[in-house]
């Protein structure tokens, strides 16, 4: 029992830590067990996936096939154990997967255990690899025909009927024609007008051509097929040339030279003491040396640098039993230039009848470009990381609050402005919504912010960008909310991360500054109106109509500022009395009679005015004696302005206001100027 239990635990650990995905499917097609690999493959959570059926994951085209095979297997009938289908991942991506299905007992009930592996990338590689294999098989078949057959007619016939069609993408629809020395070799009578041809040049003379096309108008020869056709023509030209010039050579020798001598890679053979016995042209070009300078010499002492010789000697102290792949970095002088390059070598041991190593065959290629590309990729990745860090530093330095939100409005990442705004670490806000943050700091009893955020987020969910201002809190703080959905993310219903970017700016100071500017412009408007009134008064010419001048002064005072009364008095020094000259819209005739003539000591402010000849301000509490001047309950403030002529009192002007606050210094200075203009107009009347 202990052993079985231990084996069961070990099995569970093995399955859970496996890179492959394990699914256990019940008779009803439901998932009853999944391992960690299945969760990573499907991108679903464990609880979420256990409630799904096969239909929820398998592509609609493959559902019928999977269900039929599941029923056959659970019904003890034959069904394929290994096959490929398409699967739909949680984010909507379609994957090519390979299933290995077996029948098992799960909780004493029959079930199916499926081991799943993602082969999406392998499939594209396999398809491209198949095409390259077909091309290589075709080229190899061409060389093979040259070695196996001596008759050139049979070789050309096989090329048109078998070798070239099988190396093309659509073998059954290929039309191949070879015209050589006035002879025609073809595999079909029809040929499409759109064809590719390549000349057959033998010993610098054009002796024919190779033409290839597809029988269907919808099929076109691809670029790599065009290159293949040209390669066929070149190879065929060389083959014909070799057949004509090397008919007496042994078939094995000609085949070996055709395969080895024309290779781009460097190929050589050497004895266990590293003495070279054979080198091809590629090897000579590889080291920029002639064949006679290489054969019979040890490559370990002639081609390897001193610092690397001991390492290589240790590698070959014991004879190799299988091919060895090695990577070297070497400095070589080629055409007088010292070149640093990377080389990849594959060494294969050759054995005699007694299974002893008698010789090695090595193939090398220059991979310097590949190494440089890999280094450039690493540098690009490091640069990308640095750019990301710089971007994060830049975002953290901004005064605005910048958040990355998921589809539910939860914060995925927030910049460090949150620490200044809310005095809390930025990482503590992860998984919290914007509404929760602002609602906890600024009490939203009327739910105005809740409605505002709900409406804004609904617009963002539809893919629309949002920009709106909102006032929060008792201290009247203004914020600008900008929500920008990330493109192509809001269309995916199941996507939960990186949905939108939200930028929140504190515009309280901007709003207040704007209000100050508006108030300033209002003040400028009032000032402009007042100045225009003064200019209008100064433009009035001498007039004998005293009543018109007095009425102009009182009406101008009303236009300058919102006042209840404007009373204009003349001072008779001989009688020590003040007489009413004009009043603005006085409807209360009884009160008007009471204030029509005033003795110099009838009110406390009159002796002060006669003595000081300066303005006098009277509030409602200070002017209880001025009951005769009050006809409206809203009057709370009086201003008395003297009218002077060469520092002599001519009279005074009394203005009454409904405001509780006293006049500003600017307003008092302006009313003094207004009184001066009024005095000048009255003086002009006396002179005229």
Number of strands: 25
How many helices? 20
Largest sheet geometry = 6 strands, antiparallel
Q: What would you call the structural class? A: alpha+beta
Shape: elongated
Q: Helical percent range?
A: 40-55%
Q: Give the amount of beta strand, in percent.
A: 25-35%
- Measured on Cα atoms, how large is the radius of gyration? 51 Å
Low-confidence stretches: 1-5
What does this structure look like?
With 688 residues, the chain is of the alpha+beta class. 41% of the residues lie in helices and 27% in strands. The protein contains 20 helices and 25 strands. α5 (120-148) packs antiparallel against α6 (152-167), α5 runs parallel beside α7 (223-245) and α17 runs antiparallel to α20. The protein starts with a helix and ends with a helix. The relative contact order is 0.04. The model is unreliable at 1-5 (pLDDT under 50).
Give a short synopsis of this structure.
The chain is an alpha+beta fold and 688 residues long. It is 41% helix and 27% strand. The strands form five sheets. It has a six-stranded antiparallel sheet, with helices on both faces. The protein has a five-stranded antiparallel sheet with strand order 2-1-5-4-3, sandwiched between helices. Strands 11-10-14-13-12 form a five-stranded antiparallel sheet.
């Amino acid at each position: 029992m202990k052993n079985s239990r231990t084996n069961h635990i070990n099995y569970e650990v093995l399955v859970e830590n496996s890179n492959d995905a394990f699914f256990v499917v019940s008779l009803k097609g439901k998932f009853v067990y999944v391992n960690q690999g299945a969760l990573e493959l499907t991108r679903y959570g464990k609880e979420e996936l256990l409630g799904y059926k096969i239909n929820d994951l398998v592509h609609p085209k493959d559902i019928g096939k999977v269900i039929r095979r599941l029923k056959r297997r659970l019904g003890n009938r034959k069904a394929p154990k290994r096959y490929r289908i398409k699967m739909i991942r949680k984010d909507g991506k379609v994957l090519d997967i390979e299933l290995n299905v077996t029948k098992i007992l799960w909780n004493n009930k029959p079930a199916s255990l499926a081991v799943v592996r993602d082969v999406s990338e392998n499939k594209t590689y396999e398809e491209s690899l198949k095409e390259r294999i077909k091309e290589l098989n075709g080229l190899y078949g061409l060389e093979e025909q040259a070695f196996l057959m001596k008759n050139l007619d049979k070789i050309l016939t096989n090329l048109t009927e078998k070798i070239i069609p099988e190396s093309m993408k659509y073998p059954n629809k290929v039309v191949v024609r070879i015209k050589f020395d006035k002879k025609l070799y073809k595999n079909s009578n029809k040929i499409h007008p759109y064809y590719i041809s390549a000349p057959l040049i033998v010993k610098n003379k054009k002796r024919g051509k190779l033409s290839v096309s597809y029988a269907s108008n919808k099929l076109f020869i691809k670029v790599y097929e065009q290159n293949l056709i040209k390669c066929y023509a070149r190879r065929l030209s060389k083959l014909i040339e070799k057949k004509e010039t090397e008919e007496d050579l042994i078939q094995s020798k000609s085949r070996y030279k055709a395969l080895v001598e024309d290779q781009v890679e460097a190929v050589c053979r050497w004895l266990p003491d590293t003495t070279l016995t054979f080198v091809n042209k590629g090897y000579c070009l590889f080291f920029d040396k002639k064949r006679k300078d290489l054969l019979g010499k040890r490559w370990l002492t002639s081609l390897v640098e001193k610092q690397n010789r001991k390492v290589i000697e240790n590698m070959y102290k014991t004879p190799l039993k299988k091919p060895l792949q090695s990577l070297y970095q070497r400095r070589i002088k080629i055409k007088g230039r010292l070149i640093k390059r990377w080389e990849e070598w594959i060494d294969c041991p050759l054995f005699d009848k007694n299974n002893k190593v008698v010789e090695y065959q090595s193939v090398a290629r220059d991979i310097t470009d590949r190494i440089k590309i890999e280094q450039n990729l690493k540098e690009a990745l490091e640069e990308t990381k640095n750019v990301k860090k710089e971007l994060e530093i830049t975002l953290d330095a901004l005064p605005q609050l910048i958040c990355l939100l998921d589809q539910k409005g939860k914060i995925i990442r927030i910049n460090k402005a949150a620490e200044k705004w809310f005095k809390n670490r930025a990482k503590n806000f992860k998984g919290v919504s914007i509404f929760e943050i602002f609602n906890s700091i600024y009490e939203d009893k009327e739910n105005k912010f809740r409605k505002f955020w709900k409406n804004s987020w609904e617009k963002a969910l539809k893919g629309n960008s949002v920009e709106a201002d909102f006032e929060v809190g008792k201290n009247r703080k203004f914020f600008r909310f900008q929500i920008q959905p990330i493109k192509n993310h809001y269309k995916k219903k199941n996507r939960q991360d990186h949905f939108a970017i939200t930028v929140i700016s504190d515009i309280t100071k901007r709003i207040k500054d704007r209000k100050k500017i508006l108030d300033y412009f209002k003040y400028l408007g009032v000032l402009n109106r007042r100045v225009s009134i003064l200019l209008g008064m100064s433009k009035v010419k001498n007039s004998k109509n005293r009543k018109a001048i007095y009425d102009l002064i009182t009406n101008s005072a009303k236009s300058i500022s919102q006042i209840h009364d404007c009373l204009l008095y003349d001072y008779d020094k001989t009688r020590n009395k003040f007489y009413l000259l004009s009043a603005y819209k006085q409807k209360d005739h009884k009160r008007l009679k009471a204030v029509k003539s005033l003795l110099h000591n009838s009110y406390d402010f009159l002796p002060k005015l006669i003595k000081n000849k300066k303005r006098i301000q009277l509030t409602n509490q200070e002017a209880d004696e001025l009951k005769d001047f009050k006809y409206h309950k809203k009057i709370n403030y009086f201003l008395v302005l003297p009218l002077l002529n060469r520092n002599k009192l001519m009279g005074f002007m009394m203005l009454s206001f409904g405001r509780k606050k006293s006049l500003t210094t600017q307003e008092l200075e302006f009313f003094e100027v207004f009184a001066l203009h009024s005095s000048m107009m009255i003086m002009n009347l006396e002179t005229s």
